[in-house]
Write a structure and sequence with these properties.
The chain has a single domain (about 5-139), classed as Macrophage Migration Inhibitory Factor (2-Layer Sandwich). Helix content is about 35%, strand content about 20%. The chain has four helices and four strands; from the N terminus they run βαββαβαα. It has a four-stranded mixed sheet, covered by helices on one side. Strand 3 (about 65-75), helix 2 (about 80-95) and strand 4 (about 105-110) form a beta-alpha-beta unit.
């Protein structure tokens, strides 16, 4: 159950929702989360509230900068993570004309038992769902 935080400059609610849709679809396509496993927080910021270096690592970023932070269960390979980054930037570019240079992605890996889906329980600790069972060896 990833928890996704998306930060972008103030825009229309429709554009923000489409960014969130692209992020979610990329996770379904690449890291195997179920379609309904969607928990996202979208924050829109005024000028000066998103602070980033426009040229760090020789990447030319614009005011279209979008930061995506995903907290997810640990254990996916570097190749799977790379496919997520690629798919996310592709979808945003194809569907919203977001420049790939403007998409910054950060993954925070935690143990499955570090999630509570509600009711004060650690559901993934009690019974690991099928889509996370392949990650069990990484724990």
């Amino acid at each position: 159950m990833p928890l996704v935080r998306i930060s972008l400059h103030r825009t229309t609610p429709e554009f923000a929702r489409k960014v969130a849709d692209a992020v979610h679809q990329s996770m379904v396509d690449t890291i195997g989360i179920p379609e309904k496993d969607r928990f996202q927080i979208v924050s829109m910021h005024e000028p000066g509230e998103l602070i980033y270096d426009p040229t760090f690592y020789d990447i030319q970023r614009s005011d279209g900068f979008i930061a995506v932070q995903i907290t997810l269960a640990a254990g996916r390979t570097g190749a799977v993570k790379t496919s997520l980054y690629k798919r996310m930037t592709e979808l945003m570019n194809e569907q919203l004309s977001v420049r790939p240079e403007d998409v910054f992605i950060s993954l925070l890996e935690v143990r499955p038992e570090d999630f509570s889906l509600g009711n004060g329980r650690a559901q993934f600790f009690e019974a690991l769902p099928p889509h996370l069972q392949s990650l069990q060896s990484a724990r």
